[in-house]
Amino acid sequence: MRLVIAECQVDYVGRLTAHLPMAKRLLLIKSDGSVSVHADDRAYKPLNWMSPPCWLTEAAVPDGTEAEAYWVVTNKAGEELRITIASIEHDSQHELGVDPGLVKDGVEAHLQELLAEHIETLGSGHTLIRREYMTAIGPVDILCRDAEGKTVAVEIKRRGEIDGVEQLTRYLELLNRDTTLAPVSGVFAAQQIKPQARTLAEDRGIRCVVLDYDALRGAESNEFRLF
Fold this sequence. Notes:
Layout: E1 2-13, E2 17-29, E3 35-38, E4 48-50, E5 54-59, E6 69-75, E7 80-93, H1 106-117, E8 127-135, E9 138-145, E10 151-160, H2 162-175, E11 184-193, H3 195-203, E12 207-210, H4 213-216
Helix pairs in contact: 2-3
């Protein structure tokens, strides 16, 4: 992992455009190729980012620009994150090693087990391929097929938040490179899904499913339901 603290300007050019004026920020370049831009005022969400697969090149500084460096990060769709660096205050690289992955709490682990046993909760005709399908960046909670035989990757959370959607997005990008599985769609399943997470998921074509823990256990729920 490379950490760079720099006075920089960031421009995103693609389906949307976004501009971050010159300011001191943290640039995070991970070994998977992802690049994210962080400020000092939030817990985890970057100001802007480019998810893998993407490629960082150090290009020539544009004419008329007073800068120390000019980075261009490009993804497979041709979208670009252009970073104009006026000055670098810190630049270091760190080897973090292989991460053991997220250890789910008891409820999430049980939800995964129950959903695998009752996979048609996701829709009629769904069949299980396997639980904990291993990838190069960690295990997918459930891999299954829908009624049409297409592959579906399922990420399970007790509470569905934006970071869970980001995690599933990374899995989908990787799985869709495998010609034996592609096309792979995603399902974000949780007992509760925050509105922001639902909006992000649906924008990325990921289906959201709210899980009823009691129903999966075969118990009657006392809550009113709207069908």
